[in-house]
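Same chain as my last thread, 523 residues:
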Amino acid sequence: MMVETVFLLPGQGGYTPGLFAGDDSPEVREVLDTADRIAAEFGRGGVSHLLTHADAPSAADLVRSDSFALQLGVFTAAVGSFRIARRRHTPDVVVGHSMGEIAALTVAGAFGLADGARLVCHRSEALLAHCPSEGGMVALELPAGRAAHLVGAVADRRLAVAVSNAPRQTVVAGPDEAVAVVARLAAALGVQATRLNAPFPFHSPMLAVAAEAFGEAITGIRQHPLRAPVYSPVAGGYLQDDTDLKALLVRQLTTPVRFMAAVRELHADGAQRFVECGRAGLSGLVRRSVPEVDTTRTAEARGADAAPAPVTGATPVPAPASTPTPVETAPVASGVSVLDELRELYASVLGYPVEVITGDADLEADLGIDSLKRAEMLGKVSAHFGLGESAVDGRFVAQPTLADLAALIAEVRGGAAPEPRATPAPAPVPTPVQAAPVASGVSVLDELRELYASVLGYPVEVITGDADLEADLGIDSLKRAEMLGKVSAHFGLGESAVDGRFVAQPTLADLADLITAVQPSAR
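reply #2:
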């Protein structure tokens, strides 16, 4: 079959507090009311407040306190976002990622809205009753084949490759101790390993007993003919009316999700537009897996009259442009906070699932984002929010969490919406050295030595070109990143300084060579 537009329904990571804040449409209200009603059937509180109030608990909070509400919230967010997306596009195929398959089958008509919510509730109860509490998941920046070698090296039958998301993103699930060993092996190999904020070790043998209990609980739920094509990353193909879909959902708990393979097959079938129903980072995974496709998310443009705002191509970071995207110009109307924008920016650049990038996670201790990488990201943050000279302030690179960074951005910008960014922040009025370097007779290295000496309070003779900034002069990575802002302003580097090579140079001689290479006029 020919495919053009694919709707993606997220699983874990699909919950965002206040996702539907300000949306009073009947189709979204029906989803919220139904979820609350079904939760009450199971003796639980409703979840609509989680999706209509921006100050609702985060996913990390719910993992610890109420995984039942989190799972139902994920389903409700996906189905409601599907209805929003349908205002602007008509899907040729629907795809669910992990638990998102329940939402995908619901919107495709295989299950009624209430029964879809019941499936989620039965699944959650089975997991709570029968899943060991000591399991977890870790995301590796590795292809699935290489991740499988690490799993094999650990030799624990309960450990498994759980999800293949992108060419270099694979998730492994299993017992805590085995997952920790995988993470240590990855670190020894120089591979990024990030522990996911997941309540259970999904898609692993550890859920076998819970899967059996889930299957017994849903025997009375009726399956209907599909009204739209559904591609299953677990089944590895299109589903048919004679497919036992409840059995598929049971099997899914212990079976790997091959999301990258699904995206590539749909692309081979002609898919050119992937619409993510929500904001869980699936768009970024698509762009990493197939070239030259349009991706968009329903959270980027809320409302029936919003014009589509696709992001084209494989580059995950939007370049500064004169025409701002809806998120940039109207964060209040879209319900996207500064923190949410930061989480999505970091997730897309670093290749993490967005649920990994929580506001309270320590960037270095929890996420492995060291000071150099944090400083590089600050350049992208500055460009995204139009911070200009404000980002030179050393407080920005020193913030330990994204919540702290979001608060500082809001403080500096007075809580206002980001202004359209026609060009990168301009350099200050050129200094005499820039205007007449030949007449001054001062080299780039000499200027750097004097700049560092004056700012750091060192005698200029201490700041030699070949001295290691950290080992010899005690200038750590955070201070080096702060100094980079001053260097950028002094030499008028503009967007060039966003390049991570600048903050990584170990000596001033190396930095001087790079400045000269990037901006020959500095010579």
